[in-house]
Specification:
By secondary structure, this protein is α/β, with parallel strands linked by helices. The protein has a single domain, classed as L-arginine/glycine Amidinotransferase, Chain A. Helices cover 35% and strands 17% of the residues. Helix 17 links the parallel strand 17 and strand 18. Helix 6 (108-122) packs across helix 9 and helix 13 runs antiparallel to helix 14. The two termini are 26 Å apart.
Length: 477
């Protein structure tokens, strides 16, 4: 491919070529036209790892105008739990720290505005809107980025002619977790496909921005989970180096995504089992009991219990990710005893114990072929130690089979984990941004040579996400 073609074959061009007719291209992104053996596959290293100097990052700041009513809700009242004003203030603290680090922050709303303008010029706006948001298609000339993000008060708390409520739009506040919508790799962007029905709509907006926004035209799409028909969320993916990616599977990402990514990206993919399953279908966790849901929310994505903080240095959970302690960790021992003394069903207890026993097991899928390598019962911490990693534990205490260690894990470590202690984002090697409220973990990181900046985030961590989830790096140095 000569230099002229290489410069012109940007992400948007590739997507349009792969989509076929112009009309279908306006509706969806269907397939990837850029082969990884082309010059495009090797000439750009947008994000070579998860800890390089952060240069550009996609964010989505909450506002006081965000709409918190959703069509998928079964509640008899609108969502009332969140302090929106506090969320806005706390997210702004994150942006300040990102900018102080030297990173350029790109707002999703601004990108959408440019995408809508471009789509109007190309004549595809009305067609896309008719498919993605048919209730808005009758007033396409008035729909803005604020409308698509649920911030247009014209469409909030609407009434029918009989005076009852009519839902024109839905809650898009979870779009603040921009990491889940896409993952940048050394070769380009992996577009994700959300597990939940509610978050699936966010993918539509991101895909629209990818197709039309000139602000994102330099980033090629190398894997599109929607067109591939696979569930994949960005909080489960971490780029280790130009040859390796870690991906959490079974909870919010389909296990079948791992070999697919190994083939498409030409990278070794280390799949970390979060929940044991053969495949995922959207919304398939609806039958979970509250007890099991609470347990699994602790480990929602890979980045809720494991992140990189420096070269071959990870922040992660004690006990649960080491084969030696399978079935003997404090949480398993708690469940085994509590089921006799508390109102825990035997079925929930058995499922929870089985979940923890298999949690963190790894499989390796080789670059190019996607062939699975047998790793036996090895878990994630065992694997990274074999690669020479340094490990810092949430709570700062290593596994120690004593009554004191058991009490510490239940009383302190789990609390910091719930406050997203492991969910940090690196702005440079050895420098991370974390939530305030996890002092034991912060002290452990600093003792291990990591510079930690924190900000108040009580309303943010309640949403089961941390600074890693709130950022989608587009470029790292």
């Amino acid at each position: 491919m000569d230099s002229f073609i290489k410069s012109k074959m940007n992400r948007r061009t590739a997507l349009k070529l792969s989509a076929g007719a112009a009309l279908s291209a306006a509706f969806t992104l269907t397939g990837i036209a850029v082969p990884l053996n082309s010059a495009f596959g090797t000439s750009h290293a947008f994000v070579q790892n998860d800890i390089g100097i952060l240069k550009r990052v996609l964010v989505h700041s909450p506002t006081l105008d965000d709409y918190l009513v959703d069509r998928t809700s079964s509640s008899l009242t609108p969502y009332l739990e969140q302090d929106i004003e506090a969320s806005v203030q706390q997210h702004s603290l994150l942006l300040s720290l990102l900018r102080e680090s030297g990173a350029e922050t790109l707002e999703l709303q601004v990108i959408l505005e440019s995408a809508i303008e471009e789509a109007r010029k190309s004549g595809s706006w009305q067609s896309w809107l008719s498919v993605a948001h048919p209730r808005l298609s009758g007033s396409a000339d008035k729909v803005t980025a604020e409308t698509l993000l649920g911030r247009d008060r014209t469409y909030q708390y609407k009434l029918w002619n009989d005076g009852t409520y009519r839902n024109f739009f839905n809650d898009t506040s979870s779009s603040i977790w921009t990491r889940d919508a896409g993952v940048m790799t050394p070769k380009g962007l992996v577009v994700c496909n959300a597990f939940s029905n509610r978050r699936h709509r966010e993918n539509k907006v991101l895909r629209f921005a990818l197709l039309h926004s000139p602000m994102l035209s330099e980033f090629p799409v190398v894997f599109d989970a929607v067109s591939e028909g696979i569930i994949l969320e960005g909080g489960d993916a971490q780029v280790v180096d130009e040859q390796t990616m870690f991906i959490g599977t079974g909870q919010r990402t389909d296990p079948r995504a791992a070999p697919m990514l190994a083939k498409r990206l030409g990278m070794d993919v280390v799949a970390v089992q979060v929940h044991q399953t053969d495949y995922l279908s959207r919304g398939s966790d609806q039958g979970l009991s509250a007890a099991l849901a609470n347990l699994r929310y602790l480990f929602l994505h890979l980045d809720t219990f494991f992140t990189h903080v420096n070269h071959k240095h990870a922040l992660t959970m004690p006990w649960l990710l080491e084969e030696e302690y399978a079935g003997q960790d404090p949480l398993t021992r708690y469940i085994k005893g509590a089921r006799a003394d508390l109102q825990i069903s035997a079925e929930d207890a058995d499922q929870g114990i089985e979940f923890l026993k298999n949690f963190g097991k790894i499989s390796i899928y080789r670059a190019g072929s996607g062939k699975k390598e047998d790793t036996g019962e090895m878990k994630l911490v065992d694997y990274i130690r074999s690669k020479g990693y340094k490990v810092t534990y949430v709570g700062g205490r290593e596994p120690d089979d004593s009554a004191d260690s058991f009490a510490f894990f239940l009383g302190r470590t789990l609390g910091e984990l719930r406050r997203q202690a492991a969910n940090v984002v690196a702005t440079a090697p050895g420098k991370v941004i974390a939530y305030n409220g996890t002092p034991l973990t912060r002290a452990a990181l600093e003792q291990d040579g990591i510079e930690v900046q924190t900000f108040e985030a009580r309303e943010l961590w309640a949403g089961h996400g941390g600074p890693h989830c709130l950022t989608m790096p587009l470029q790292r140095g």
